[in-house]
Amino acid sequence: MGLLGSNFVKAMLQKGQQVNVWNRTFSKAKALEKDGAKAFDDVKDAVKDADTIHLTLKDDESVNEVLAMAESALHHGATIIDHTTTSKKGAIERTKKWKERGFTYLHAPVFMGPKNALEGTGYMLVSGDQEVIAGVETELAAMTGKLVNLGPEEGKAAAIKLTGNLFLITLTAGLSDTLTLAKAEGLNAEDVADLFRFWNPGAMVPGRLRSIMAANFSEPSWELNMARKDAGLMMLAAKEGNAELSVVPAIARFMDEWINKGHGNDDWTVIAKDSI
User: Fold this and answer.
1) Which residue of 41, 85, 198, 210 sits 20 to 30 Å from the alpha carbon of 149, by its own alpha carbon?
2) What is the pLDDT of residue 49?
3) Residues 124 and 185 in one domain
């Protein structure tokens, strides 16, 4: 019953569903009783009459721990839907384990924040047994803006979610460096916001990815040597402004490795060659 889970519950209650709630910190579950949920301080009591159990936890370990606590009270054939961001390996293992025990486990991670959970917007991912997905598709689609079925491969939803989160982490780190350099150069955050009002680098992402996948690095639009020169200017400007960049120095070292391999005149995206 964290930020995401509690808003999932509120949205379900608004649709007239009966929802039992449990949280390791009982007060977080208890707080939802004012919205119409029924709170329990023992997870076994919360799940014993439930046909569907939704989990929104921290990681593989917490999911395994909570399910172990609840197992003796689960009725045979119950469906467990796990929205936790976990490892691919963990999702595959749990799917197999709970099927062998007579339960349906489906990993359904999300690209959703608390506001999305309350409003039923954002994206929810599923993959694996298509019959299982068909059986819960209507219920899950009502929880999100778009339910994305990634096909029959177990664990693919977990892998795609983690990959997407990596992009979000690196994007935020890049924005941090951008703001740091701007400040060192005497600009303010609003100046950076103005830049993105007339220049939208996000629109470049699909095309840039396709270009990298094509692996045609010998026809550069921006040579690696020139990109490395600019990275040096960035680091120097930050240093002169008594600031420190966190992401660019690591990228510069990576660029140097590729230049030393003889790729200085290739397109700078050659640094992604080994990742394809």
Assistant:
1) 210
2) 86
3) no
- Give CA–CA dist 131/137, Å, rounded: 10
Question: What are residue 216's phi and psi, to 5 degrees?
Answer: -100, 75
Q: Which of 90, 95, 225, 106 is nearest to 162 (CA)?
A: 90
Residues 40 and 136 in one domain: yes
Cα pseudo-dihedral 234, 236, 237, 240, rounded to 10: 160
Last residue in a domain, options 109, 128, 152: 152
Task: State the amino acid at position 13 in one-letter form.
Answer: L
Q: Cα–Cα distance between 122 and 229 in angstroms, integer? A: 40
Q: What is the pLDDT of residues 49-97, one digit of tens each?
A: 899 999 999 999 999 999 999 999 999 899 999 999 999 999 999 999 9
d(CA 78, CA 104): 6
Distance between CA 217 and CA 225 in Å, rounded?
Answer: 13
The token pair that represents 194 in the structure block: 């103005």
Length, in residues, of the chain: 276
